[in-house]
Design a protein that fits this description.
Layout lengths: L2 H14 L18 H5 L1 E2 L6 E2 L8 H12 L6 E2 L6 H9 L9 E7 L6 H11 L1 H5 L6 E8 L3 E8 L1
Parallel strand pairs: 3-5
Antiparallel strand pairs: 1-2, 4-6, 5-6
Helix pairs in contact: 3-5
Pfam families: ASPRs
Keywords: Signal
Protein name: SCP domain-containing protein
Length: 158
């Protein structure tokens, strides 16, 4: 794995594991347990709203990603953050980050006329077997990162 992808993964963890304040228990983008669902736009099937997260991912990319993953795991929910402040503080004090659930990674060189949407499709196709094994998972979060030369995506499940 190249150093750019490792840096992107670390950035993803930092974005999604950074608390709003030292005293609050809510994390960035997560006001209450149902607020993200209420604030998001409905998915094309009208059943589940796509959450609005403050993570830098474009809403259309998140919508496509959520719809692709929920086609394999229908009852899973997209959560802007997957950890609470207490576990974050424990992880930081122990000198590293930890995630108990599965982590799926996918990276590919960016080429002309290769859209982020196509990259998401390729990632989900690559993960097809893994996703079918995750029916018991309840929540997930992903980060899609694009550079001039590469696409990278990482998804955490719990």
């Amino acid at each position: 794995m190249n150093s750019v992808l490792l840096l992107q993964i670390l950035t993803f963890y930092l974005i999604h594991l950074t608390p709003l304040s030292a005293t609050g228990s809510a994390l960035k983008g997560e006001e209450t347990d149902t607020s993200e669902r209420r604030r998001g736009q409905a998915s094309p099937d009208g059943q589940r709203p796509i959450p609005v997260c403050d993570d830098g991912m474009k809403p259309k990319a998140r919508e496509h990603l959520v719809n692709e993953i929920t086609s394999f795991i229908p009852n899973i929910e997209y959560a802007c953050n997957l950890t609470d402040q207490t576990s974050l503080e424990a992880e930081i004090s122990s000198g590293g980050f930890a995630h108990d659930g599965p982590v799926l990674l996918f990276g590919k060189p960016r080429r002309s006329k290769y859209r982020a949407r196509d990259f998401v499709d390729d990632a989900v196709k690559e993960w097809e077997y893994d996703l079918t094994e995750m029916e018991s998972r309840e929540r997930f979060v992903c980060d899609l990162d694009t550079t001039k030369d590469d696409y990278a995506i990482v998804c955490l499940f719990e």
